[in-house]
Amino acid sequence: MLLEEMSYTEVEAYLLEKDIVLIPIGSVEQHSPYGIIGTDFITAESIAREVGRRLDIIVAPTLPYGMSQHHMAFAGTITLSPKTYVEVIKEIVISLLEHGFRRVVFINGHGGNINPVKTAFDQLKYENYRGIFEIISWYLLQKVQDIENVLYGDLNGYHATPSEISITKFIRPKAFRNKPKGEKPVEKVETYWPLSKDEFRNVYPDGRMNSAPWLAKENDGKLIFEEAVRVIIENVRKIMEKEII
Ligand SMILES: [Zn+2]
Known about the structure:
This protein is α/β, with parallel strands linked by helices and about 240 residues long. It has one domain (about 5-240): Rossmann fold. Helices cover about 45% and strands about 10% of the residues. It is built from eight helices and four strands. The structure holds zinc ion. Zinc ion (ZN) binds near residues 40, 110, 159 and 164. Zinc ion (ZN) binds near residues 39, 110, 159 and 164.
């Protein structure tokens, strides 16, 4: 059920039965020459919408922009500062709570979002907002990582991973018509974190982080997508059963 396609009367009727909403979040950032800039929000959105469809629960519009400051040395990246992102997340949650939603679950596709989203949750609780606020990052789910490990082993890496690129190939195949296919060396770089945008580009010159995105395949994407959906459904069901204090 997509919030953007509902009327307010339908939302009011939903709220008589259920109080959960999913919100896909990601980033608009470089994913190497092999991957597309929308990777993180496209993966999160497609997974969240499928979970919403199968569980008959509302999925709010995707927040595509995230915290991507460390990718700003690559053209096309658009970032919010952590401070702004915390406020955006807070105000989305507060809006939903005002209407009677009590379980707000962010389905996340981007590592840089996790700290600010958790900070927003801490602040909401400090301000005594009632409800359950959760973030589920699909690529951190153990069962998803088990599949990635079988498919790519160490070559999955940390950014522009063949796993996330496979999902976008599955969802948006036409976007890959002109992307490169050649292989490059995969260097295991040990560094510190966080990095400034210039440090990032020095350490990871083509935007990959220890990954082999050319291994991405549409069929792998379907497999990883299905597993992420399956595991998130289990997690969301548990969230729906929790008692709100
Ligand atoms: Zn990504």
